[in-house]
Write a structure and sequence with these properties.
The complex is a heterodimer.
Chain A: E1 3-6, E2 10-14, E3 19-21, E4 23-26, E5 31-38, E6 44-50, E7 56-58, E8 64-68, E9 73-78, E10 87-95, E11 103-104, E12 108-113
Parallel strand pairs in A: 2-12
Antiparallel strand pairs in A: 1-4, 3-9, 5-6, 5-10, 7-8, 8-9, 10-11, 10-12
Chain B: E1 4-7, E2 10-13, E3 19-25, E4 31-37, E5 43-51, E6 54-57, E7 64-66, E8 76-78, E9 87-94, E10 105-106, E11 110-114
Parallel strand pairs in B: 2-11
Antiparallel strand pairs in B: 1-3, 3-8, 4-5, 4-9, 5-6, 7-8, 9-10, 9-11
The chains are: A mainly beta, B mainly beta.
């Protein structure tokens, strides 16, 4: 069964410092993995997705994520945080080879201090 | 522009009343989903539908009902049987592929408050 785990419920950084949001997955099949961002009272917006074409995936707003099969991880990074990055981030995924039923982690709240 | 439209954005309900949340998409996507979001609990799947006139229960279907009479529409009814309906509800859609899959597209959400 597919599952996604976000390792931190909250991450706090200072503006201009690097961001790391951690996500592990478990899957019996090759996964499709995603990172979404959610601002208050809004829907989720796709940041980036991994679908086996390349292990390093670049997304919008300077975010990127690296798929590491040996570590079953798909961590989200950004070299320099901006105040506007403060939001809730969700890691999600699904397995190929069957019905596509996406699952999500519990979310990580990114706090950015001036 | 293509996208998913949820309405209403805010809804208040008295205990014992059923309410229906609307979700419409013009992306020509096959699959549609309803998620419930509560603080600290992420997104929990209520129902999903991969084809017209067919839908499946998700992890927390009790107290909810859906229909899929048209490809573009997937309304969710929160019934009086739902014990704690106050939450933020998100509708999503996706193309249904057999290989590496496409992402979900989300609506802006509907916030339901029971008075």
């Amino acid at each position: 069964a597919q599952s996604v785990t976000q390792l931190d419920s909250h991450v706090s950084v200072s503006e201009g410092t690097p961001v790391l949001l951690r996500c592990n997955y478990s899957s019996s099949y090759s996964p499709s993995l995603f990172w979404y961002v959610q601002h208050p009272n809004k829907g989720l917006q796709l940041l980036l997705k991994y679908t086996s074409a390349a292990t390093l995936v670049k997304g919008i707003n300077g975010f990127e994520a690296e798929f590491k099969k040996s570590e079953t991880s798909f961590h989200l990074t950004k070299p320099s945080a901006h105040m506007s990055d403060a939001a809730e981030y969700f890691c999600g995924g699904a397995t190929s080879g069957g019905s596509y039923i996406p699952t999500f982690g519990r979310g990580t709240s990114l706090i950015v201090h001036p | 522009d293509g996208g998913i439209t949820q309405s209403p954005k805010y809804l208040f309900r008295k205990e014992g009343q059923n309410v229906t949340l609307s979700c419409e998409q013009n992306l020509n996507h096959d699959a549609m989903y309803w998620y419930r979001q509560d603080p600290g609990q992420g997104l929990r799947l209520i129902y999903y539908s991969q084809i017209v006139n067919d839908f499946q229960k998700g992890d927390i279907a009790e107290g909810y009902s859906v229909s899929r009479e048209k490809k573009e529409s997937f309304p969710l009814t929160v019934t009086s049987a739902q014990k704690n309906p106050t939450a933020f509800y998100l509708c999503a859609s996706s193309l249904l592929l057999q290989g590496p899959t496409g992402e979900l597209f989300f609506g802006e959400g509907s916030r339901l408050t029971v008075l």
